[in-house]
Each structure stands twice: as structure tokens, then as C-alpha cells.
Amino acid sequence: MTKIVGVRFRNAGKSYYFDPKDMELFVNDKVVVETARGVELGTVTIPVMEVADEKITAPLKGIKRKATEEDKKKEADNFAAEKEAYKICQEKIAKHNLDMKLVQAEYTFDKSKLLFYFTSDGRVDFRELVKDLASVFHTRIELRQIGVRDETKILGGLGICGRELCCKTYLSEFAPVSIKMAKEQNLSLNPTKISGVCGRLMCCLKNEEDTYEYLNRNTPRRGDLVRTGSGETGEIIDVNVLRQTLRVLFEENDNKEVREYQVEEVTVCGKKKKGQNQQQPKISREEEIEEQEAEKLEELEIKEEAEMAAEKAAENRENHHGNKGDGNHKNKNFKKKNKHKKHKNNNQNQNQNKES
């Protein structure tokens, strides 16, 4: 078992484990820590506790100190500087006529790096922009392309429920959300009703997925034939999954009657036969449009999942390799130069031999 403390660096961000070093730390305490990006100021979200060694990626970095009033003032100054950096970057983007939307500027606590988050439909060549920004701010500049969900998480807003967005308040990571979850919950497949502010499927569809999957496993489907305790057989015409109630249609000669039962009060005895005279319900134009929109939305979700996977892979590579990329690039260039020199020397020796 190892003693840890959890620290978060931005609102609704992921909590990372650090070594408390015998410090007495409580939730909401501000602390200064050393990270892969440099010195950062974060907030304690998990109090000092012991966890299993296999849940930790060794070695753990330690807490440098509790944040002082001077540290808190420095953080406030950084926020003010970020607003100014945002305005300058906007001007530089317009100057270079780049097709990108700036979302946020962020300084590390020690101002050793300035990050700019942006969205774009495709890849952007921002090399000249980086040179301009470096000449203005005289610090290390990093531009990071993010997706629409990350943009919404940074900017925040209100959902259709009237509350602040889940991604802004408490979600630390985005879980994959599919159109299947909406179908499982018997929701309208109209994208305007099941999409969030970001234009993607609402993250809250994931919250009740497990409950609906469990209930649907034990609930008969619409169209199933069921037998009641009195021995009557009828067809299910409507299902309320959460209440676990069924509306059953009984037909006898020309008489039809609909009754409501609890799921445990009936027994499924089969499916309605196709040979029975039953007109298939016609699909309305609205339902057809909803289905088409749902297919488009599903394609967008597949694309979004691929983008999220690519972003996560890029972030993992960055965290794992650090600044090794520049060194490798230099080594390759050095090898190419040596190879070119050897080839040149060999040609000169051959020419000298011919002349002699």
C-alpha cells in the first residue's frame, strides 16, 4: 500500500496521484506540485489515503508545498495574462488568415509554457504563427487542437435541463456515447432532442445505460404474446421500462380490450405469428426523417470516437516521450549528413584513382 493524495488542475479535470510527503492536506487545499508540464498549482480533490501499489504508476511525484498567498496572487496574475494572450493570438490568427477558432489561452504556473487551445475542421499549418507568438511572449509556445466536446467543456454553458453542463461541473473524462443507448432508452431519435450543446449525443445518456440494460433484459418486448394469471392470452402494445408495467391488448371476436399489468403478473408465451391478419404500421414522414438524421448522427459519433482516440494517443505519446522528438530529428539529420559526406568522399577517391 502507498500513501497518495489526489490533485486536480482545472475545473472538472482528471485527478492525479501525488506523494503527500507527510503533509497534512485536506480537500480543497491549494498545493504547488511538479508535473510533466512544469510547476503547477492545483486543488486537492482526494484526501491523503492508502491505495494498492498496482493502481499507481511509479515513481510518484511529490507535493512541493501548500500554496501561499503569494502563490494564489501569482495564479490570479496568470489568469489576467491569459486574457491578454488570447487577444494577441486572435490578432495573429487573423493576420496569417488561418482557418482555426481559438478557444482558450493557458499559462503554466511558472509561466515556462503558454498553451493555446483551438478547434478546426482540418489540419492547420501554424508554424509561422508559433514564431510570431514566441517573439511576442518570449516563452515556450504550444498550440493544441481539440474537439467540439473539449471546447464545450472549457467554455461551459447550460443544458436543456436548465443546469450547468455535466462536462463543466464534474465529468473528468468523456465516455463514448452511441445511438444504441438512445434506442435502448426508447427515446426519440431526433438529433435536436438527444444532442447536447456541443452537437454530439448527450453525455447523460451514459448515466442510465446500465439501468435500462438490466431492466430490458427482464422486460418483454412490444408485440410479444403473454398469458395472465387467469389464463387469458394477449399481445403487448406498450411497455414502460422504468415502472415495469405493460399494456396488453385482448381480442375476442370483434371485442377489443386493453389492460395494464406489472411485468411479474404475466408470462411470455411467444411472438405474434406473421400469418395473422395484422396491418403493419405505416412509417410516417417525420419518423423517416428522424431515422435518417439518427444515421447521420451515428456517423458523426464514429468520427468523434476516432478523433478522441487519436487525441488520447497523441497525448500519451507526448507524456511518454517528453522532448525526445527533437533529439531524434536531429540525430536523423546528423546521420543523413554523415552518409552524404561518405558518399561524396568515395566519389572523390574514385575520381583520383581514375586520374592516376
Describe this entry's structure for a reader.
The chain has helices at residues 69-96, 127-137, 148-155, 166-169, 179-184, 191-194, 209-217, 285-321, 324-355; strands at residues 2-8, 16-18, 30-35, 38-51, 63-66, 101-107, 113-119, 140-145, 224-228, 233-240, 245-252, 255-262, 266-271. The protein contains 9 helices and 13 strands. Helix content is 39%, strand content 25%. A hairpin with a 4-residue loop joins β10 (233-240) and β11 (245-252). Among the domains are: 2-67, no CATH class; 75-146, 2-Layer Sandwich (GMP Synthetase, Chain A, domain 3), CATH 3.30.300; 218-271, Roll (SH3 type barrels). It is elongated and about 90 Å long. Mean pLDDT is 78; it is low at 275-283, 318-344 and 351-356. It has a 5-stranded antiparallel β-sheet. Strands 12-11-10-9-13 form a 5-stranded antiparallel β-sheet, with no helix packed on it. It starts with a strand and ends with a helix.
Strand content: 25-35%
Largest pleated sheet: 5 strands, antiparallel
Highest-level CATH class of the domain at 75-146: Alpha Beta
What's the N-to-C terminus distance?
Answer: 78 Å
Radius of gyration, CA atoms, in whole angstroms: 31 Å
**Number of DSSP strand runs:** 13
**Total helical segments:** 9
Task: Describe the strand arrangement of the main beta sheet, using strand numbers.
Answer: 2-1-4-3-5
Tell me roughly what share of residues is in helical segments: 25-40%
Mean residue pLDDT: 78
CATH topology of the domain at 75-146: GMP Synthetase, Chain A, domain 3
Q: Can you tell me the overall shape?
A: elongated
* Poorly predicted regions: 275-283, 318-344, 351-356
CATH architecture of the domain at 75-146: 2-Layer Sandwich
What structural class results from the helix and strand content? alpha+beta
SSE string, helices as H and strands as E: EEEEEHEEHEHHHHHEEEEEHH
